[in-house]
Design brief:
The structure holds two protein chains of two kinds. In chain A, 0% of the residues lie in helices and 50% in strands. In chain A, the strands form three sheets. In chain A, strands 2, 5, 6, 10, 11 and 12 form a six-stranded mixed β-sheet that branches. In chain A, strands 3-9-8-7 form a four-stranded antiparallel β-sheet, with no helix packed on it. A two-stranded antiparallel sheet of chain A has the order 1-4. The termini of chain A are far apart. Chain B is mainly β. Helices cover 0% and strands 50% of the residues of chain B. In chain B, strands 2, 4, 5, 6, 9, 10 and 11 form a seven-stranded mixed β-sheet that branches. In chain B, strands 1-3-8-7 form a four-stranded antiparallel β-sheet, with no helix packed on it. In chain B, strand 4 and strand 5 form a beta hairpin. The model of chain B has no long low-confidence stretch (mean pLDDT 91). Classes of the chains: A mainly beta, B mainly beta. Chains A and B meet through strand 6, strand 10 and strand 11 of A and strand 5 and strand 10 of B.
Chain lengths: 111, 115
Amino acid sequence: GNSVTQMEGPVTLSEEAFLTINCTYTATGYPSLFWYVQYPGEGLQLLLKATKADDKGSNKGFEATYRKETTSFHLEKGSVQVSDSAVYFCALNSGYSTLTFGKGTMLLVSP
Amino acid sequence: EPEVTQTPSHQVTQMGQEVILRCVPISNHLYFYWYRQILGQKVEFLVSFYNNEISEKSEIFDDQFSVERPDGSNFTLKIRSTKLEDSAMYFCASRGDRGTYNEQFFGPGTRLTVL
């Protein structure tokens, strides 16, 4: 079956630091990969996505590249801001199936 | 911008009571989902709903759970007799037609606390 593994949090960084949140997956077929973000008190918002190998998803300065050879989709940002503090979820689906999520990684950015 | 809404934001109930969690999906969407997240654990799929019937459900979605789209706008999740382990955040999501990209839009969640 499908599964997603994310690095444990919380990740604590100072403003303007470089961010990496690791995500690896197992899936049948050729899944689409997603990063969702959950700000305090809010729902899950799609941050970025990639639908095939070597695709790079990007949004709001965040990037992630679909690496089929390493079954990974690591999230990166060159310079984090306090407003990026949130919980980040890596997820996948195969075709139009339901989403399979990782456990989420909390990011805390201090000024 | 259209969004998925959920009510209530927090529900407290006694064990054994019935609860109904309500969702209003985005108006032109056709596929509807419930997920839950027990505190500190991953977001888990419960059920998907299309064309007025369940299209897929997980092992979690047993006979105590049911879903309904009673009036063409609301999408509800009913738990018939709540257990302590049903305490979780419940997320509703909706998706447009298969012709569009398979993005699911999530609501803010309902926190269910079973005492």
